[in-house]
Amino acid sequence: MTTTLWHERAAAQQIDGRAFIGGQRVWAKSEQRFDNLSPIDGRNLGAVARCDGADVDAAVAAARAAFDDGRWAGKSPAQRKRVLIKFADLVQQHGAELALLETLDMGKPIKYSQSVDVGATANTLRWYGEAIDKIYDEIAPTAANSLALITREPVGVVAAIVPWNYPMIMAAWKIAPALAAGNSVVLKPSEKSPLTALRLADIALEAGIPPGVFNVLPGFGHEAGAALALHMDVDCIGFTGSTRTGKQILQMAGQSNLKRAWTELGGKSANIVCADCPDLDAAVASAIGAIYFNQGESCNAPSRLFVEESIKERFLEKALAMMPDFQPGDPLDEATVMGAIVDATQLKTVMGYIEAGKNDGAKLLSGGRQARGESGGFYVEPTLFDQVDSSMTIAREEIFGPVLSVLSFTDVREAVRQANATPYGLQAAVWTSDISKAIQTARALRAGTVHVNQYDGDDITVPFGGYKQSGNGRDKSLHAFDKYTELKTTWIQIG
């Protein structure tokens, strides 16, 4: 589709900002609304319901009623499977509309909204639908005079709170396994990117998910989000977002009904490139592509790049040659590979970190400025710092923007020590031709995923999550069912 046509469709796009509760679109009970501003050009996309505790009560009550009467939980796994596969098919059928909403809402290039976000969302729904009727329960090896059954049951009402950087994908990672297992769900998208979550609710109803089983509440974290975390009738909460907010949610879960709380939080991932790297060009392309993808707004972005001293000069020369390819452009142009920062607040945060890097003595090699100011949107040049040390703010704190910090090393063991010297532990990578070094380094890195000689490898079949303050629990793979099910033992005495 041409850029002109995308802009025409954007201008004609009608936004429905009402919440989705019990199978119906409704405004917040308070009638409060907030403006949804596009980071592309600052335009107001429309009014969105500002849900609060009263709306949370209504959504949780609808979800509880749906769970208790068995309209979804009581269906066989094969029946739920058929509905989720239809849900996935409809997501793909509505792909252009969903991609446009995603790009308008959070500024990512339409190229990736179509090729990555829509496809991954549909694939997640389909995969968990396919999986649910292929998971078997267990019989324990007890004595002959007893029969012990170990079965999985849905936990009940699941609250899912998701971030703004991958709104559809993060929602799918939560709702797909939760729904497949038979739970009812209340989803709260970020107030910065509510549109695709609301549209997914319409599509879910069309696919055959019964009213009340899937509810969507737009609103602010301190209002709708906190009310969900504190609600006494929510059985489980899955959260992806900042470590600071994740800690608050864990506290609220404990203060209320001790609901299960699963968090996928921040990251400050380390990418270690050794002198015996098998393909320096591939390492450079991976490092640059991974940090600037999605405008650097990825929790697993490899924002700390450790390069062995003997190859650093060649590495940086190649990296700088790639920087023009990642200059921010019009997100509705399919040639654009880096779009807008999500809003003015995040733009200010990113620029503040860039200033901190310069003030701390890091050497700015490229970027560091705002871009496309005439558009009215929020754009930052891809930024590259050299001569960074681990004590600097830009090497310690999650920036969530297109800023790469380069550190050097002479001993890979020292690189590992510095890589682990962070409260985060989401992802990491090592590049080496030595298989022993690769395995030893991967074992030593304290991260939920360690890549070897690549960074962007990913599949729905592998778990995603972190160590330390990057959170607990895992999204994706069959392990996600552990979060949204209870294990029950039924002991039967025989004779």
UniProtKB/TrEMBL annotation:
PANTHER family: ALDEHYDE DEHYDROGENASE-RELATED (PTHR11699). GO terms for molecular function: aldehyde dehydrogenase [NAD(P)+] activity. Belongs to the aldehyde dehydrogenase family. Keywords: Oxidoreductase. Residues 27-489 form the Aldehyde dehydrogenase domain. InterPro entries: Ald_DH/histidinol_DH, Ald_DH_C, Ald_DH_CS_CYS, Ald_DH_N, Aldehyde_DH_dom. This is 4-guanidinobutyraldehyde dehydrogenase / NAD-dependent aldehyde dehydrogenase. It comes from Rugamonas rubra.
